[in-house]
């Protein structure tokens, strides 16, 4: 049954937000998670770019298309807040991470954090990750059922220990920290959102304690000795005005940054691997570019030398944006494209489905990296048509880091291995949490002669 979210104030000239909210609290949460594309299409056809429904226990306004996404992400009248939206999902495990801060306070932290992502810093992070990539890839065992997702996840996690923490860990401690980190991330998708011992939420809270203790233990030495890692960079970051992070800030930002960087890069590389297996001509094209570079390890100044990898990465991020939806809490009455949005509502920008809207992308389901080539630039149709890194004040601070890491890994993989899937294989993409292949993406992996 169609109903409106709230009547617009008299004389405002605004329209109400309509929708088919479904059963209170439950709504069509399951359908949205399992068949996001179908549900989004139906809603758009019926109600246009702004509609509402119950989602995960919340009255949720979904904004579809680039124009509505821009209004929310640019957030001109500061009506949309991150903290009270994200806290609901990940607050207990990632509280006071920068993405969960808002407005003046967020800006203050962002200015300091920016110092950890300068060109010079990126250059040294990239150099620091090369040996870890080499070692990680050498240990891969070719075969007919090599699970790409699982291996990439392990590799990016191990790299995080080098590049993010820069702390020498024995295997036992590395496993303990990595385990805690995985538990904290998984807790965000717990069904039982209450600390019942043995269940995900509880494990997440325990894990948060392990991570806090770990970073606190190493903090004094990091502040004193510095280093080329993100941990040291956050300890040393200072704005021109002399603002620095407190010890608590460093701990909170480290735990958050690990999370923000890890799954996103893993998903991007896995999606690229999937399409490069389905479209071997693209895999060969990328391999030829990597071979033409004539270097076993990609360096900072080579980042622009792999144009086809750029195209494929963009198309992978369009088809499977690792952060599939961006939630915001409405902190004062506002409007989106002439619709009245009352304070208290949750607003969601669904990147996953927005990126496949036929209104913005020709033949949206098709893997077609050339759509980003200079002669076509289909993304130019609107600044927010392609926005896997978000936009506005919270736009991903690690986007260059991500490009660097993805290309560094991909370059070495292309030189060492060839991979394929059976002709009719379609991956079972799980969209109930961050997107990932339910089967781990099994491929046939072969080692190449020239790649050692
Ligand atoms: C392909 C990989 C990545 C994707 C698709 C991605 C995507 C995003 C998105 C969509 C946001 C905005 C969230 C929002 O507006 O609510 C974001 C924020 C953020 N990302 Fe990334 N990210 C990636 C990699 C990274 C990496 C590698 C790092 C760190 C090295 C990182 C650190 C952050 C941080 C700190 C924020 C919060 C920024 C703020 O609130 O000011 N991300 N990311």
TrEMBL record:
The UniProt record lists the keyword Acetylation:
no
SUPFAM superfamilies attached here? Answer: Cytochrome P450 (SSF48264)
Protein keywords: Heme, Iron, Metal-binding, Monooxygenase, Oxidoreductase
Tree of life domain: Bacteria
Q: Cofactors per UniProt?
A: heme
The family database entries (Gene3D superfamilies) matched by this protein are listed as: Cytochrome P450
Family, according to the entry, reads as follows: Belongs to the cytochrome P450 family.
Name used for this protein in its record: Cytochrome P450
Task: Give the organism the record lists.
Answer: Actinomadura vinacea
